[in-house]
Amino acid sequence: MNRISSLFGIQFPIVQAGMVWCSGWRLAAAVSNAGGLGLIGSGSMHPEVLREHIRKCKAATDKPFGVNVPLMYPQLDTIMQIIEEEGVKIVFTSAGNPKLWTGWLKERGLIVAHVVSSAKFAAKCEEAGVDAIVAEGFEAGGHNGREETTTMCLIPSVRKATTLPLIAAGGIGTGEAILAASVLGAEGVQIGTRFALTEESSASEVFKQHCLKLKEGETMLSLKKLSPTRLVKNAFFNTVEEAENRGASADELRELLGKGRAKKGIFEGDLEEGELEIGQVTSLFNSIQTADEVMRELVADYQTAISRSYQW
Question: What is the distance between the alpha carbons of residues 298 and 96, in angstroms, rounded to a whole number?
Answer without folding.
Answer: 30
